[in-house]
Structure formats: structure tokens, C-alpha cells
Amino acid sequence: MPELRYLDTMIRPVILLAIAVFLAAAPVSAQEFSAKVTLNRSQITNTSLDYLDELVPLFENYINQRKWTEFTFQEHERLRMNLQVILQSESNNNFEAILIISSERPIYNTLQLTPLLAVNDESWRFVFNRNQNIIHDPQVFHDIGSVLDFYSYFLMALDLDSFSELGGSEFFRKAQGIVDVAQGSGSLAWQAGGSSRRNRFYLINGFTGTGAEGLRKAIYRYHRHGLDLFTQDPEQARANILEALTLIRDAKRATTETYAFDLFFDTKYREITAVFLDAEPNERLQAYNLLLEIDPSHIGEYDKLQ
Prior knowledge:
With about 300 residues, this protein is of the alpha+beta class. Helices cover about 45% and strands about 15% of the residues. A four-stranded mixed beta sheet has the order 1-2-3-4. Helix 3 runs antiparallel to helix 4, helix 3 packs across helix 6 and helix 6 packs antiparallel against helix 7.
């Protein structure tokens, strides 16, 4: 039951009856996402494009009002997604844009949120006309719908992975299916090769290809047995996070593709540092040595652990 995904499987049998009674009486929210879209159109000088104001509610409604899964989500369980669309150029209603996507999930037993992903998609090209609707058909490529579908399935998969080991597999497959369909679009943003290895193809490959299982298991251990445990048992939580970092080290050694690992640490490096700042000196050193190998790009932050 996905509505119980915030609860560890070890305690589910104990509280199953109580939860069932509560859910039977509670109002149900079927939708899975709580997405907020912002639009930056400062670089677009065409004053006739007043209809661009339609884009924000159109995108939000497309994500928030669609039923993406067969699961039932309560209001507090909805996935928090932020999308910032930065329009860079326009010609005959053909737009080039940067899409900045981030998502968060709650930390169990706290009022805090932890970031799951922050990624810049710098290669979005789409046509947008007045009164336009978005096509939702995973079997057919559409320059707007396919991008929103891809990131919705991807973020759903990542969220479920953080609550259950490899729990997002079904939705990573759905995201992979969007990429497969998009191969014929001609856009390099969906394809291997080219000058960049940081596009949608390499993003999904980082979570389904070589080394992906180790990274995904580490994401589960980091969140469910690390952050979610921290208020109850910080020493055990840190030990579990060290195990997660070790899994990431082993997974990274097994592949030459680093995009997924880079995204994880770009999102988490400050949080990881904060986790270990109050640890015992030997534990701080162990964390530092692991991070020095697997995430040297943020070593200036990790130096705080020495």
C-alpha cells in the first residue's frame, strides 16, 4: 500500500489495522503530485505573446490533476515538485527553454524536508500556441507532454526508491519508455552521443544501467535508514549513511557514467556535511575519506569534517 510508504516494513503489521480504519474515514486525494511551476519570460521581447500566462496553470494542472499511478495518496503524501521554466528564445511560437526541476520528500518524525533531486535541463525545445492543450500519450512523442511525463515518472520512481529498496522500478521503466519513444524525435536531448552526456537519455541510464542498482539501494539506505532515523538514533543513522556512501563508492567504481552520481551529490553535499559535523572524530574522518573519493568536486564543503 503506497499510502504506507512512509512507514518501514518492519512496523507495518503492527499498525495496519489502525491505518486502515483511519483511511476509511479520511478524505482521499487521488493525485500524486503537488507541483509548482514558475515562468521566467524576461528574455522574450515579443509583446504579442501575452498568452504565455496560460503556461503556468496548464503545466500545473497537467501534473497535479492527472492520475499517474494506481496508488492512493493522502494530501500530505503528495510528491513536492518544483519546475522553473526559463524561456530563452522564440520564433513563430517555437520556444527554446531551460527547465529546472527539483523535488523534496519529508523526513520521518520531523517537519523538515530533504531534497531528492535538482537538475537543469538546458535543451527543451517546444511549440506553444494560444489555447493549446497538452497531449498525454506515452506511446507518442510530444514536445511538451513527453518532457512532463518523463520527469513525473522519474521523480515518482526516485521518491519510491527512497522509501522502499528498489521501490521505484516500475516508474523508472515508464520513464525509460518515454525516452525510447522520443528517440525518433531528432532531439539530442533524448539520445546518446552528442557533445553532452548530461541529458534525459543519460539521466535515466544512470538509474537503470551499470551501477544503478547500487546507487538506488544507497538512496534507500540514506533516506529510510539514515535521515528518517536521525531524530531517534543519530549514531545508528550516521552508521547507515556511511554504509550508503560505501554502496555509492562501489557502484561508481563499476561504471564510467557519472551523471547520476554527480546529481545526487550536487543535491545532497551540504546535507551530508551537516549529518557528520557532530559525529565522533573517527566517523568524520571515515566519511571524509569516502567523500574525497566519490565526490571530489565538493571537497571544499567536506573539509569542514576535518
